[in-house]
Each structure stands twice: as structure tokens, then as C-alpha cells.
Design brief:
The complex is a heterodimer of chains A (about 190) and B (about 190). Chain A has about 190 residues and is of the alpha+beta class. Chain A contains six helices and five strands. Chain A has a five-stranded antiparallel β-sheet with strand order 1-5-4-3-2. In chain A, strand 2 and strand 3 form a beta hairpin. Chain B is elongated and about 75 Å long. By secondary structure, chain B is of the alpha+beta class. In chain B, strands 1-5-4-3-2 form a five-stranded antiparallel β-sheet, with helices on one face. Chain B is built from six helices and five strands; from the N terminus they run αβαββββαααα. The chains are: A alpha+beta (about 190), B alpha+beta (about 190). The interface between A and B is large, with 64 and 63 residues.
């Protein structure tokens, strides 16, 4: 079967275009991670107290209370069976929220932690998985699209190179150089060290 | 600049980053689906005698063992156990986990090596910055490769966008992919 060059070019183009925003974000936040130590990591906290009639006894009651009180993020960690001060934690790219039932006071304490700008950007880089609300699910679909696109536009790019500039000396030098370095590192880590 | 020169620059930048991109694409899918790709079987067991100061604190003793044996890896402090006769710790990096058991009476240390496997290493390169304690020089150069690859990738992306906008864009493509770009940005703010 003969593969049409125009079709390959379209796949290459659309795979790249569909993930441009995410790719730019990943490049930018990768540099932020590389220079992590030089950047500010000061977070800020905000505490709110809410009256409740009694201790929330089940996961459903906790979920309902959380849904009614504008808690952002996806579920991270919980100890709601604890007798004293049971809590749940929610996290998002820009920070986290800890909701604690203050035993003896009949109050719910909501502590919101906001990360510094650089940490929040790193937080976007680290988001993954299909759990959480609709925006998290949509973002996970975009991540899958990005992963597939990266593989697709690399393979289609190599195919186009073979069709258009197969005898370009510099292209071969760059390609073989990258292959040798990457391949050596992979083999060295997997089988030698 | 001539079109052919821009295409060549886009090609060179793309080819330089090609293997990194395939690994990054694969690991993005693995991470997004939280797939466990690590092999946990012991492939090699060996023992040797080593002189360390048993009076050291747990993490310092583990690091001392690592340095005396010249093994690459971090010490997860939550995996350290000690009693009057034995000291157990773990050394780990993207490609291998090694369990160490030191016998205080004999000074013998037993090592159990668990290589994580090729796919786990490919996945681990996503997080790797060339900086692991006791890593050989050749692995430390990854930091330079990574820095250059990100810059080259950005260059390839900008050149590709420029070539599309200048020479081949269609109005519907502009609306569709421009819309997807804005949608992706809004989604990143929402999460």
C-alpha cells in the first residue's frame, strides 16, 4: 500500500496544531522545574469557619457539604473516620483545601492554601488522571491527545524527511547524534548500570 | 528567510528532539492512566563486607553505605528499618531499586537488585534531570541534553507554526485550532 505524502503532511500538521497550547505549557513549566531552586515557593493561607449542627458521619454527607461550599480541586486524601478532628483534602494545580470538623466546637474549618505562581504553573504540569470533575476529565483527554500526537507527529515528520530531504547530510548528523545519545542513555540505564 | 531554509531548520530541530518526544509521548499516556510499568522481581543478589559507622543516624548510615559501595540512587527515608542486629534500607533511581541489609555483627551487607525494565526507564526519563547521587558523568550530561531539547522543541514548534501561517493555512484550520488553543488555555486555568 502506498502512503500518500499529502495525508502524512496533514496528520503531521494537525497532530502538532491540536496540542500547541499544552506543548508550550509543558516546555515553559519544564524550564520552571529546571530552575525550581531559584524561584519563590511561598504559599499563602486563608482560613474560614462554618457552623454545623453535628459531626458529618458519612462520605456522602462530607461530599454534600463540600459541594455546597465552593471547594475547588479533586479529592486527594481523607481521614473522616477519626474521632478527633476528621478531615478531607482537595487539591488543584494552584493549591489545596483542607476541610476539618473541629470536634467539640461544631464547626467546619476550611483552610485554603494558594501556591506561588511558579509552583502553580508546576502544578498544571503535574496534573494527570481521569478522576475529579468534568474539567479534569477533559484535561486528561487532552493529555492523551498530546501523548498520541507527540508520537504521531514525530513518526510522520521522519516519514516526510525521508520523502523530501533524504540526502540532507546535516539532517542525518542531527538524527544519528540524537539517536546515539538517547539510545545509549536508555541502554546504559536499563541494562548496564 | 527563504522557505526551504525554514523547512530545513524545522526539520533539524524536529529530528534532534524526535526520540525525546516519543519517550515523552509514551510516558505522558502511562502517567495519565497511572499504569504501573515497573518490574519488581529480584534479578541479582550479592553480598560484600563494608566498614561503616553504626552509630550514624538512619539516613546518614544509608548514604554512607551507598557511597562506600559506590551505588547510584536516592535513599527513601520511609523505607529504613533498624534493630540491634540489622539495618535495612533501599536505594532507588529511575532504572533500578536495590534493597540493602547490613549485619552489624559481621559487617556484611546483602544486596538485592530489582531492575525496573525498559518501559519503566523510558517512563522515568520523563522526570530525569541528570541529577542522581553517585551518577556517572555520562548520565549527568542529560541535564544539558534536556535543556537543549526543550529549547530546540520550542524552536521547531515556532518554525512549524510560522510555516503553516505563512504558506498553507486555511481559514477553517485557523478557527478550529485557534479555538482549541484557547479552550486548552481555559482548561489549564480551571484545573
Amino acid at each position: 500500500m502506498k502512503i500518500k505524502y499529502k495525508l502524512i503532511k496533514k496528520i503531521h500538521l494537525y497532530a502538532g496544531l491540536s496540542t500547541t497550547a499544552l506543548l508550550i505549557m509543558f516546555i515553559l513549566t519544564s524550564y520552571i522545574m529546571i530552575y525550581h531552586k531559584s524561584l519563590s515557593h511561598e504559599s499563602t493561607k486563608e482560613t474560614q469557619l462554618f457552623d454545623v449542627e453535628r459531626k458529618l458521619n458519612s462520605a456522602e454527607e462530607w461530599a454534600q457539604w463540600i459541594a455546597e461550599h465552593d471547594i475547588n480541586g479533586r479529592f486527594d486524601y481523607a481521614q473522616i473516620e477519626k474521632k478527633e478532628n476528621p478531615f478531607q483534602e482537595y487539591a488543584h494545580a494552584g493549591g489545596s483545601t483542607r476541610i476539618t470538623y473541629l470536634s467539640g466546637q461544631n464547626k467546619m474549618e476550611v483552610v485554603k492554601t494558594y501556591k506561588s505562581t511558579s509552583d502553580a504553573l508546576e502544578g498544571i504540569h503535574r496534573q494527570r488522571g481521569f478522576d475529579g470533575g468534568p474539567s479534569y476529565k477533559l484535561y486528561a483527554i487532552l493529555l492523551d491527545l498530546l501523548g498520541t500526537s507527540l508520537i504521531l507527529f514525530t513518526i510522520t515528520g521522519i516519514f516526510m524527511w525521508m520523502k523530501l530531504l533524504k540526502y540532507d547530510k546535516w539532517a542525518w548528523i542531527v538524527f544519528v547524534g540524537g539517536f546515539l545519545y538517547f539510545g545509549f542513555t536508555l541502554i546504559y540505564l536499563t541494562y548496564i548500570i | 528567510m527563504k522557505k526551504i531554509l525554514l523547512i530545513k531548520l524545522h526539520l533539524y530541530a524536529g529530528l534532534f528532539t524526535s526520540f525525546y518526544l516519543i519517550a515523552f509521548g509514551l510516558s505522558s499516556i502511562i502517567l495519565n492512566h497511572k499504569i504501573d510499568v515497573e518490574n519488581k522481581d529480584i534479578s541479582k543478589t550479592w553480598s560484600t563486607k563494608v566498614e561503616v559507622n553504626p552509630e550514624l543516624e538512619n539516613v546518614e548510615l544509608a548514604e554512607s553505605l551507598r557511597d562506600k559501595l559506590n551505588i547510584m540512587g536516592w535513599v527513601p527515608h520511609w523505607n529504613i528499618q533498624r534493630d540491634s542486629a540489622q539495618f535495612k534500607c533501599q536505594l532507588t533511581h529511575l532504572a533500578k531499586t536495590t534493597d540493602l541489609t547490613l549485619d552489624f555483627n559481621t559487617g556484611m551487607v546483602q544486596l538485592e537488585e530489582k531492575p525496573k525494565g525498559l518501559i519503566a526507564v523510558l517512563n522515568g526519563l520523563h522526570f530525569f534531570n541528570g541529577n542522581i547521587p553517585n551518577a556517572p558523568f555520562v548520565l549527568r550530561t542529560w541535564a544539558v541534553y534536556q535543556w537543549l531539547t526543550l529549547l530546540t522543541l520550542f524552536t521547531a514548534l515556532v518554525l512549524g507554526l510560522w510555516l503553516w501561517l505563512k504558506y498553507s493555512r486555511k481559514t477553517w484550520e485557523l478557527y478550529l485550532f485557534g479555538g482549541l488553543f484557547i479552550f486548552s488555555c481555559i482548561l489549564m486555568v480551571l484545573i
